[in-house]
Amino acid sequence: MTSLGHRLPRVHLPGINLPRLHLPNLPAAVSPGAVPDLVAGFSRGAESVVFRAAQAAGLKRRAVWSRPGRHHIEVHGVAQPGGERLAAQVERALDGMPGVLWARVNAPSGRVVVAVGPPEPRLRELVAAIAAVERTDGLEPDPDCPEPHPPEEGPRTRSAMTRIATDAFGLGLSAAVRILPFTRAPGELAGFVRAVDLHPRLHSLAGRGLRGDHRADSVLPLAAVLAQGLTGGWAGILLDGAQRVLQWGEARAQLAAWEEAEPLLAGTPERASAPPPPDERPRGKPDGPVERYLARVLESGTIAGAATLSLAGRKRAAALALASLPSAAVAGREGYAARLGWLLARRGVIAMDRGVLRELERLDVLVLDAAALRSARGVLTDLVPLPGSDAERVAVQAFSLFDPDRPDQVQNSDSWRLGPLDAMPASDGSGTEEVERLRSAGGTLLGLATDGSLAAVVRVAAEPAPGIDALPAAARRAGLRLLVAGEEEDSQRYDFADGHVPGGSRLAGSIRSLQSEGAMVALVSGDPRALAAADCGLGVWRPEDPAPWGAHLLVGADLSVPALVIEAAGMARTVARQSIALATAGSGLGALAAFTAPPAQLPARTMAAVNAAAGLALGHGVWRAGRLPERRTSHTAPPTPWHLMPVETVLARLDTDQAGLSTEKIDRRGRRPAGGGVDGLDLPRAFVEELANPLTPVLAAGAGLSAAVGSVADAALVGGVIGLTALIGAGHRVSTERSLAELLSRSAVTARVRRDGTERVVAADELVPGDVVAFEPGDAIPADCRVIEAVGLETDESSVTGESLPVAKTSHPVVAAAVADRRSMLYEGTTVAAGRGVAVVVATGVDTEIGRGMALAGEATPTSGVEARLGRLTRMSIPLAASSAVAVAGAGLLRGVPLVESAGTAANLAVASVPEGLPFLVSAAQLAAARRLAEHGALVRNPRTIEALGRVDVLCFDKTGTLTEGRLMLAGLGDGERYAELDALDKGLRPILAAALRATPAADRPEEVSQQTDRAVLTGARQAGVDTGTRTHAWHQADALPFEASRGYHATVGRYRGKFLLSVKGAPETILPRCTRRRDPGGDRELDEAGGRALQETLDRHAGAGQRVLAVAERELPTDTVGEDDIGDLTFVGFLALSDGVRASAAPAVRRIRQAGVHTIMITGDHPATAEAIAAIISTDGVAQRVVTATELDQLDDDALAERLARTDVVARCTPTHKVRIIRALQKCGRTVAMTGDGANDAPAIRLADVGIALGQRGTPAARAAADLVVTDDRLETIIATLIEGRAMWSSVRHALSILVGGNLGEIAFSVLTAALTGRSALNGRQMLLVNLLTDLAPAMAIAIRAPREDSMDSLLTEGPETSLGATLTREIALRAGTTTLGATTGWTLARYTGTRRRAGTVALASLVGTQLGQTLIDGGLSPSVLVSTAASVALLAAVIQTPGLSQFFGCTPLGPVGWGIAAGSAISATLTNTAVDRLIGTSPDGDGRPTDRDDEGTTAASPA
């Protein structure tokens, strides 16, 4: 056939004459030298069609973009080297035209920007002038230098429009060829043209014939589309059309971003002008993974086709060669890049060269220009007032004079002067130490002087570019080598880099040097020349500066945007790798079709597999791009010294006032979810995530294999099973997680905030910087705030700074370097201890002091879980499935079964080997356990925490509130010489308690007072029957000084025995120095220095034993009023000892945990003696407790620490820092650690642990936010319940695996056995899917979600990943596999001798399902969900078999009583055999081989370890 066009009817299209479209003969073998001539005819014909279609659509050869007053007109050749002369001539020609205000050539975009004014010249005249200059200049376009395609081109380019038109024409041509009686072109034609387009070397050769690779890039895809149309193909055309639609959307989004930014980019002559790019790359770009795969696979396909030509014939050999087409590898990359370009455009990124988005996976080096990491603005970060200066006044003047835009210039106001320190009057040497501290911190030092003398020294740092910290993290995640380009001092400032290279004027040379070493370089900079030299230039620019023309992507000033691009580079590698995997799978399926399909259907069947893989890759690439985080949350906010600022400056900086923010401002500052994520989980996203499990690729491969051998219905059935399983799992997950989210929201922290002039209560998550919040005693601080009003305001900051005493707060500026000393600030995670106040929010989320630490801990969180174990099991099952499939196919071939049928059986067997419901079962078990825990007071933030709980082998817990009651109780009292516990008081000690009661606020109920110590005294006095007076002499209160943290005592005065008696109770360090006498049984006596020391030693002894000590003193007063001056000349009466009592349930709980094999470590800040005493109480085994102090641990290295912790029960005097080190050491030696905590300073340790547990009643918001699990009642028993649920989940996984994997292995064994005997498997693919549907979904799910039985709790504690997924699981899988094979084989054998082959297969199906369901009943017992699901599966099986039509669809035949009897008998006998063998070998949960006893519900019960 010399001309396919002559066999087509005369179809008239505008400008297109099909009969003149000549195609050359397709030779049997193609030599590289013949490629240009071979492709030239067809390509030129396609180019002619393209050109005439473009003319018919009205598209011009010269691109023009216009806006009022300005035109961007394409200039051919100006972007190539040597275009400077042409650019100058174009500018001169246009500048001389009437109405042209100015004209500047922007060479990187290939455009001249022309500003026009009245009288405006016609656009046609401007274009004609440019064309005339091009003709006279004589610059020949370089075929190896493609014309640029800037974003102003938009989607309606000649190339885009003609490609879309070609796709439409190709589809129409395909339909015409299929419908009308035309002779189709051979299918190999389209594959050949596509191969030339994809193969790098052949593409280059074709480009030589078409005068440039860029022309080959345009023409070859169009030629491939037309060739497919002539062959009657349509899938490849649709795939090409989908790519064009994505590219259209990308170009449209880029045009919108350009239109918005154009006035800033090219609005003036200076901004619009840009020279041509610099010299060429020193060496060619190294191939990426896709390029290497393209060359390798196409050459392999050609060799394979040539090798099979003589054996299988021309059609099969050609089909085999075309099966190697790697369309999926290219389509996946294109889908990802197009979607990424659309996303970046929405972020304001201007893509001057969208081609770099198609090369992201090839990048391996990231260079950061130090100049782009900071701005010219300064930030006042610290201030040191010199002695004699008023700190508040100095701070007010410093901030009022400081100009961030001119930080190094002298500023004057009245008598104050701020400028460089060297220009200020010299100091007298005072404050030198603090000044040196500022100098060592780096930056610029300024001096603040008044009246000719230096008053303060100010440190100014360069303002970091926003988002700077996101870049190193993104480079690490993307796996890029990170270099910083700059001067010598920059290497110290940016020490996070892997290395440093020269910057400044040498930056472009540094880039070329890296490229000459073979690197693909991404550069973040504002240097146009260096950006143009880079392989991916990310141009940083600010609105006030000209754009860095030469950059491939103009990213703006926010460095989180280039960080997103870098992160996208890492994802591009993943997309490339997975697209290559899909391409390989498509080639494999295509190769199978080449050998199994009838020759008449070739190469269509082969190309169908290749195109299906490409479609999946395209969709996968789009989805992956959509999964990129919209914005990574910054962990390092610019250093803003809010504590130094006057209140007026703070409010002005935040654009707010004391009445609060308006609704409009709040909407603009709307808080984003951390990490740029979404607040809730919707069904589509959950559905996709359910599909993302290790088993889906295996199932998809099985479906593809079925389709490749012609079983499209089987493939659709497999796809339906995959989708149904994922949909059910997604629905269950969404429902449960929403319920859990609702429960968690009830414990959310709230704040009283002023908005629109009114006060309202909002959730802490809704706060934004600038919100004004009011506080009262007991309120939790929801964000970092600057105090603007304070009335006796004191906060408990122990959770952040470790400071045990409340800290007084002020609204005045405070000069302090340490966080603990910044008394003008309130920090998230702290609480208000006393007073009232108003503060303005300055930081939220991860930008707070505690949030930054939590975010860093979050990056180090270890990853592990049941998914990893399932992945290993899946990888182990794949070789088994493949070998069994090969065995079945081989047996069939040996017995003369056709290859198509044998391959189909093998594909079905591969599908049958996959337990489809396993990933869903794991999710269902976790979610069900999370729901049950929520009902018992444990809120699980992430249901996947459940499986981690089952792996815990070390539990680190705090003493207070967990082992103890969490509330102070009066333990005893004494007078310094005698001491007695509360229940053993004698007459001489009771007056001490009466005096303490008088010094306590009166209340009808102890719960009414706020201080724990007062509640303990009131409760203890009631238990001991002590009152404030006696029966004959009552005591009546007259006045009081209430307790305040700064005061340290509570004092009352009342009338007693006719006198005014002052009673004082408080901290010994406050009371004892005010005592001059002490009370003895014989009367009062002087308290000399020796007596005072003896008393102090007694009190210290009790305090060292973990008791809280209060001193009690009295004296007489002349009046009924009391003031602070009256608290002196006191008589020491005695002391009270308070303690936190150990819970009665603590000892049994700890014993159960240890029986489960969990090592417990009590971590406390108490004295070692106190810690050991409490540990001895809770340890009932009589073994001495192994106690170590944190100080001793500090002397050990990490290895020695891990070894010591393995032999430690108690760590005393422990700080939050020690907790982090303990957890790291335990994890380093392979332990799975659970950590409890309640303070914000515990948050990093909680986040770092494998399972972080926050105590809900006392826990701070920071601790709860960091935790995986929130225990609302703070009880150790609840923690044990969570461990049981975790172990029960592993038990459910064990049973599910044994049912699913064992059952599927039984199916494999039965199929291999029957194939070996008859050449064909007794069960077809649809029947195998039906088996999995009936046995894997509902029954196994019922096993997974059942609640653990009360009488099996102790046995469940012995479950875990090692015992559940170890030898016990192996034995159970083997037993179930054998049982399943036995039941199915028995039924099939009996049925073979009593009926037909189809009837025997049906009986085998019923026997196999019955055997598996019988084993499920054995495991599930009388659980209602198990019974219902089993009955439903049996009913569905009966309906399928007995319903005509449906029975035939599954390859069955209706059974009579005999058939059902055989099936039931086989299943029952096999199940009973299973039970007998199980009892014989004793497969107990702990795997020690002991016999198991099954109760009446079939639940395995084992004694505790």
From TrEMBL:
**Keywords, A to Z?**
ATP-binding, Magnesium, Membrane, Nucleotide-binding, Phosphoprotein, Translocase, Transmembrane, Transmembrane helix
By its UniProt entry, which SMART domains does this protein fall under?
Cation_ATPase_N
Q: Does the keyword Transmembrane apply?
A: yes
Domain (Cation-transporting P-type ATPase N-terminal) spans 641-711
A GO CC annotation recorded here is: plasma membrane
In this chain, the stretch annotated as Disordered covers: 137-157, 266-289, 406-430, 1479-1505
Where mainly located?
Answer: membrane
Q: What InterPro entries does the record tag this protein with? A: ATPase_P-typ_cation-transptr_C, ATPase_P-typ_cation-transptr_N, ATPase_P-typ_cyto_dom_N, ATPase_P-typ_P_site, ATPase_P-typ_TM_dom_sf, ATPase_P-typ_transduc_dom_A_sf, ATPase_P-type_domA, HAD-like_sf
Q: Which reaction does it catalyse?
A: ATP + H2O = ADP + phosphate + H(+)
In which residue ranges is the amino acid composition biased (Basic and acidic residues)?
146-156, 278-289
Gene Ontology MF: a single term = ATP hydrolysis activity
This protein's membrane topology, according to the annotation, is: Multi-pass membrane protein
What is the protein's given name?
Magnesium-transporting ATPase (P-type)
